[in-house]
Input
Amino acid sequence: MPSQPPLSPPASAMTEACWDLPHSAEAAGLARQLTRQTLAMWEIAPPLSDNIQLIVSELVTNALVHAHPPICLSLHWTEGYVRGEVFDTGPLCPLIPRRPDDTELSGRGLATIDALADKWGVDPSPLADGKTVWFLYSARP
Output
C-alpha cells in the first residue's frame, strides 16, 4: 500500500519557496523543475506532485504569453494544502476558462487548472501593476 503524504512538511523542511523566473521559453520548464524539487522535499509524490507541476506550468506559460516581466513563482505548504502563486505585471483580465475547439493549438490552460486545482483565483496587486494568480491543491490522497 502506498504511503500517505504528510499533512505537514517534515520538521527540517521550509514551508515556503519563492523564485524570480526568466521571461523566456525556459521559464515553464524551470518552474516545473523547482516545483518538483520542492514537493519532493515536502514528501509529496506522484500523482499529486505531477498535477501540481502541471498547474504551475500552465500558470507560468500564461504569464509568459499574456503578461510582462517580472514573473515570480511561490509555493506554500500549509495544513495539508499546497498554495501556488504566480505574480506578473500584466494587465488584470477576466480569467474564465475557455472552450477551444479541437483544431486550436492553445487555450486549454485555465480549463486544466480549473479541473485539477481545489480552488484558484486572481488577486490584483495592491502595491504594483499586475496580479497574482493562485491555486490551492490538497496534498491529501
